[in-house]
Amino acid sequence: MPSDRLRSEHTARRALSTRGGRRRPRVLVAGLGNLLLKDDGVGVHAVRALQHGVPRGVQAVEVGTAVLDALHLLEWADRVLAIDAMQAGGDPGTIYRVGAEDVADRAIRASLHEVDLLAALRFLTNGHRPEITVLGVEPETIDTGLDLSPSVQAALPRLVAAAQEIVTGWRA
Question: How do strand 79-85 and strand 95-99 relate by DSSP bridges?
């Protein structure tokens, strides 16, 4: 039920804030991944933890694997923070911060969700492409199950803190 998870474009536009006549960037925090595959759902778990404390002008949304359902939010956003599981060869629970260009150039082995997010940008109709940063977490287990592995669960507070720090920096 993607419509239940994604806020309307109207709601997102109302969240626009200004400071001193200058518009602050509109920020989308997109939780990517599949909750049914343990650590693959870490992005959704992180966004759930973030949703209650985001400032005006920031949308924290459970996108899951329905990236195309979030196109209206990608068109709205100036900056996107995508959070997802990312296989880059580190220890499970390692947190990575990379730019979209790094994922696009395949400089790192990334989850298919970031690739889907970048592919979705081709469908934007307003000619605007938001700046995208990816926060990834090295998974321990991608297998059927609803719970995060112990190492990824232990990394979740650090992941949420890193996301808050990035968003705060963008909005300052």
Answer: unpaired
What's the CA gap between 59 and 121, in Å, rounded? Answer: 18
> What residues make up the domain containing 95?
2-6+27-171
Rounded to whole angstroms, the Cα distance separating 159 from 152 reads 9
Q: Is residue 140 part of a domain?
A: yes
- Give kind and range of the element (H or E) at residue 29: strand 27-32
Phi/psi for 160 (5° steps) reads: -65, -45
Start-to-end C-alpha separation, the chain: 34
Q: For each of the chain's 172 residues, which pLDDT tens digit applies?
A: 444 444 433 333 334 444 455 678 999 999 999 999 999 999 999 999 998 888 888 999 999 988 889 999 999 999 999 999 998 899 999 999 998 777 655 545 555 455 577 777 777 777 778 999 999 999 999 999 999 999 999 999 999 999 999 999 999 8
Q: Buried b / exposed e across 101-126, counting CB within 10 Å, b at 16+? A: ebbeeeebebbebbebbbebbeeeee
Q: How wide is the angle at C-alpha 124 spanned by C-alphas 121 and 127, nearest 5°?
A: 110
CATH classification of the domain holding 151:
3.40.50.1450
